[in-house]
Amino acid sequence: MWQADQRHGPGVMVTQAGVCYQGTFQADKMVGPGILLSEDDSLYEGTFTRDLTLVGKGKVTFPIGFTLEGSFGSGAGGGLHTQGVLDTAALPPDPSSTRKRQLGLGVFPVESRWQGIYGPFWAFVHAGCPGELQEALLGFHVQSSRALRKSQEYLCCERTHPEDSACRMEDILEELLQHREREALQQCLRKALSNPLHPLGKLLRTLMLTFQATYAGVGANKHLQGLAQEEVKQHARELWAAYRGLLRVALQRKGQAPEEDEDAETRDLQVHGLVLPLMLPSFYSELFTLYLLLHEREDGLYSQGIAHLSLFPDTKLLEFLDVQKHLWPLKDLKLTTNQRCSLVRDNCFLSATECLQRIITTVDPREKLEVLERTYGEIEATVSRVLGQEHKLPMDDLLPLLIYVVSRARIQHLGAEIHLIRDLMDPIHTGGLYDFLLTALESCYEHIQKEDMRLHRLPSRWNSRAPW
């Protein structure tokens, strides 16, 4: 929060050294109780002075679980002096309290953020979208397409006549009226959001630039991931509300009755189905970077597990994962002269593996879930072909086969992908097939991280010279 261009009220500050502070500011200085998270995930909870020096009662939780609770102050020579109790018997802290702690959640309600951006737009809408205010809203000179074609100097800041802007706004509102069916509306929104001369496009671009300024560079900190993903979902809701506001003005100008108010379920369906896939690419780079940072440790363990599993030939890996032998697609193994099937790699369930690899080619959570569903279908199709009849896989059979496919797909940063999908997927899928498949993928990801998967070596009884 700010007052007279100074930090004032609750706030979060991130330094170039990666240190995060959360507390209360007065006249641009942090005072009173607060939280400090250092780059090594040490956590301090206590009071600060105006120059961010620890002072008074507080508690430090170290990454290994040790805690130091007592009084803090400035020591001789500018160091830190403390008097208290050091507890070395404490268990390692919950990652959600230190390493993965998210700052700002609950302190800054997402609905109240960035009102300086939404305010001018809603003032424009509530005024009835007059053409003479469109230029002020967009923040730069607006010309009609006809004027652009006539002028050879359209980059000059030469004002247009008010009626040009009015006609432009009339065209925008008329287009909204003509594209209200779902498929046509999706195309209309795509066109509007990609056009900086459209009020919706201008709003999205301003939100994107604000998001980049906040969460790129110094702001790319794992403790801000929760704030960022909250904002992206809120921006989608606000953009849908902005479209509804423009549509209401268009209907009023035509003398038509406004549309009925939406219930929460209908609104969420439109937000996740229409708006989020269109606006997410504008925020994806910075948002996914925060997910990478937050899940870096787990993704590192997963990568080690994948590296070790890649040493196994196909049949040895299927055996290691306890896949039932009657489900092995041995006919798919392409052997060269004098080659044994026990040495072949990356041939079993190849269609499912290639399908799963496409999960990183889209930013839309719904499309990522569709890729996962097709992967499941490819696994079942391969098994049905092997058995010679249609076969539905129970969970006990699916999980080891899915682990096999995940290990062969070698998707980088799978943990970040899974958590992003989980956070942004449509709530309507909760408890359904997509939720089930995502949970299964999470189980595979966690299983691959286990120590016995990362440290396993090929047993001596597996003699690569012997035929299978």
**Distinct helical segment count:** 17
Strand content: 5-15%
Considering DSSP H and I runs of 4 or more, what fraction of the residues is helical? Answer: 40-55%
Which strand order do you get reading across the main beta sheet? 3-4-5-6-7-8-9
Question: Can you summarize the main beta sheet?
Answer: 7 strands, antiparallel
Oligomer: single chain
Distance between the termini: 68 Å
Q: What are its keywords?
A:
alpha+beta, 9 strands, 17 helices, 7-stranded antiparallel β-sheet, two-stranded antiparallel ribbon, 468 residues, 12% strand
Structural commentary:
The structure is a single chain. It is built from 17 helices and nine strands. α5 (182-193) crosses α8 (264-279) and α12 packs antiparallel against α13. The strands form two sheets. It has a seven-stranded antiparallel sheet, with no helix packed on it. A two-stranded antiparallel sheet has the order 1-2. It has 468 residues and is α+β, with helices and mostly antiparallel strands. The protein is flat. The chain has helices at residues 115-126, 131-138, 145-150, 162-178, 182-193, 199-215, 225-253, 264-279, 284-294, 296-309, 314-320, 350-356, 365-387, 395-409, 414-424, 433-449, 451-454; strands spanning 2-3, 6-7, 9-14, 20-26, 29-37, 43-48, 54-61, 67-74, 80-87. The longest helix is centred in the middle third of the chain and has 29 residues, at 225-253. β4 (20-26) and β5 form a beta hairpin.
